[in-house]
Write a structure and sequence with these properties.
Elements lengths: L1 H26 L5 H23 L1
């Protein structure tokens, strides 16, 4: 039982990481940490907005 839930959480984290991977690759060029964090926030906000539109 415990192993199954652990595998599910790992799968969830994996899918989330792959979603962020494209953004992360683009940000590897930038050395500025602040702009990197800002881009992550913008990506999360846009992602949440798209998910919200799908639910309607």
């Amino acid at each position: 039982m415990g192993q199954e839930t652990r595998e599910n959480t790992l799968k969830r984290w994996k899918s989330r990481n792959t979603a962020h991977a494209a953004i992360r690759k683009q940000l590897t060029r930038r050395k500025n940490k602040r702009s990197r964090i800002l881009a992550f926030f913008i990506f999360d906000i846009l992602h949440n907005r798209i998910e919200g539109e799908r639910r309607k």
